[in-house]
Automatic annotation (TrEMBL):
Residues 2-164 form the Hydroxymethylglutaryl-coenzyme A synthase N-terminal domain. Keywords: Transferase. This is Hydroxymethylglutaryl-CoA synthase. GO terms for molecular function: hydroxymethylglutaryl-CoA synthase activity. The lineage of its organism: Bacteria, Bacillati, Bacillota, Bacilli, Lactobacillales. GO terms for biological process: acetyl-CoA metabolic process. The active site is at E79 (proton donor/acceptor), C111 (acyl-thioester intermediate), H233 (proton donor/acceptor).
């Protein structure tokens, strides 16, 4: 039986900064950000959106009534959780109007959480082929104003429905994973901004990719030449390019060209939106699916990396109907019509925070474009609204 990604949807707030503006303000050559980092624009997340409301907005864009009746489980990958106890998934169950007999769990391992969700969902659906799982990757990436990581911020959510006989991507059985307790990027419980050793993290990412990919090749007897596209976790898009370059010499020139073309397709959206943490790999997959002309039957590689650190390489086969559920024209229109903030406006939004004592607070939902918004705090409880 075939199991995999049946639907994929995305949401990010419609406010952004242009990284040329940021470069000028920070006294940096813009080409460092555009070429050296591989990013052009960055989403700015207002207080009226959090990982729950963004996930609800992403999920609602792909939901049908039949999904509502057949979803058995929500696996919510995030490293920007809104409560130390209650999972973000249970808020989502209520916002989306799902049945009560749905399992709701939050998964955390830095940017790897959504991949854990996809692969656990695949195993569940393999045992229960008439059921579906909603997998979320939703995060707000914050490194701090005027830090080296500032250019790799962003935010947004990806929602995927995993089912039997999926429309988009059938997941192949073999995967290769690797984990090691290291401190390349982390966020102590009382901090909103990540701590990161960016150069070290880059080296571990590349090492994990090569190790996981070699192990996958041994398990499957497949080679890089068996792939039509390789996708990567993209905290910034140059990162995936560095990964791909470590293996490109394994194939001939034509294949190299093809893999580079598809890599460019896979980073169109990420360049414009920025870092989604755990959603980044799946935004890249969505970008590839929307931009590519690959035929059904093509094999896609997926490399997931979550600092701390865990890496996994797996693969899937494109299905006949994969273009039908996508709407690249709508996405292009949305990307072109977002609100460009000045650096000063972005800094003001970045510095806004909820009351430290969880006192009553209302966010400004009037300018928010989301169907679902985080309206504030009342009696120490988070309040979500559908507009
Ligand atoms: N034109 C073109 N490229 C330029 C340039 C210019 N004018 N100036 C610099 N560059 C290039 C550098 O050569 C370098 O390229 P390379 O990585 O291929 O060598 C790149 O731009 C970045 O420059 P660097 O000086 O190394 O950047 P930095 O010290 O400002 O830090 C990161 C960059 C990515 C390490 C930093 O933004 C970061 O830590 N981000 C967070 C990453 C993360 O979260 N990792 C964990 C999850 S995977």
């Amino acid at each position: 039986m075939k199991v995999g990604i049946d639907k994929i949807g995305f949401y990010a707030p419609n406010t952004y900064i242009d990284l040329i503006d940021l470069a000028k303000e920070r006294g940096v050559d813009p080409n460092k950000f555009l070429i050296g980092i591989g990013q052009e624009r960055q989403t700015v997340v207002p207080l009226s959106q959090d990982v729950v409301s963004m996930a609800a907005n992403a999920a609602t864009s792909i939901f049908s009534e039949s999904d509502r009746d057949t979803i058995d489980m929500i696996l919510f990958g995030t490293e920007t959780g809104v409560d130390n106890s209650k999972s973000a998934a249970i808020y989502l169950q209520q916002l989306l109007g799902l049945r009560k007999n749905v399992r709701t769990v939050e998964l955390k391992q830095a940017c790897y959480g959504a991949t854990a969700g996809v692969l656990l969902a695949r195993d569940y659906v393999t045992v229960h082929p008439d059921r579906k799982v909603l997998v979320i990757g939703s995060d707000i990436a914050r490194y701090g104003l005027k830090t080296a990581g500032e250019v790799t911020q962003g935010g947004g959510a990806v929602a995927m429905i995993i089912s039997a006989e999926p429309s988009i991507l059938v997941l192949e059985a073999e995967t290769s994973h690797i984990s090691e307790d290291i401190m390349d990027f982390w966020r102590p419980i009382n901090r909103r901004e990540a701590l990161v050793d960016g150069k070290y993290s880059t080296n571990v990412y590349l090492d994990f990719f090569q190790t996981a990919f070699e192990s996958y090749k041994k398990q499957t007897d497949r080679e890089l030449s068996d792939f039509d596209a390789m996708t990567f976790h993209l905290p910034f898009t140059k990162m995936g390019l560095k990964g791909l370059r470590t293996v490109l010499n394994q194939v001939d020139e034509n294949k190299q060209k093809q893999l580079m073309t598809e890599f460019e397709n896979s980073r169109v959206y990420n360049k414009q939106i920025g870092n989604l943490y755990t959603g980044s790999l799946y935004l890249s997959l969505l970008s590839l699916l929307s931009e590519t002309k690959l035929d059904a039957g093509s094999r896609i590689g997926l490399f997931s990396y979550g600092s701390g650190a865990e890496g996994e390489f797996y693969s899937g086969i494109l299905q006949e109907a994969y273009k039908r559920q996508l709407n690249p024209e709508q996405m292009a229109h949305w990307l072109d019509n977002r609100t460009r903030l000045t650096i000063s406006e972005y800094e003001t939004i970045f510095n806004q925070s909820l009351p430290a004592d969880n006192g009553d607070f209302e966010t400004d939902i009037n300018k928010d474009d989301g169907v679902f918004v985080f309206a504030g705090i009342k009696d120490k409880k988070r309040i979500y609204r559908k507009k």
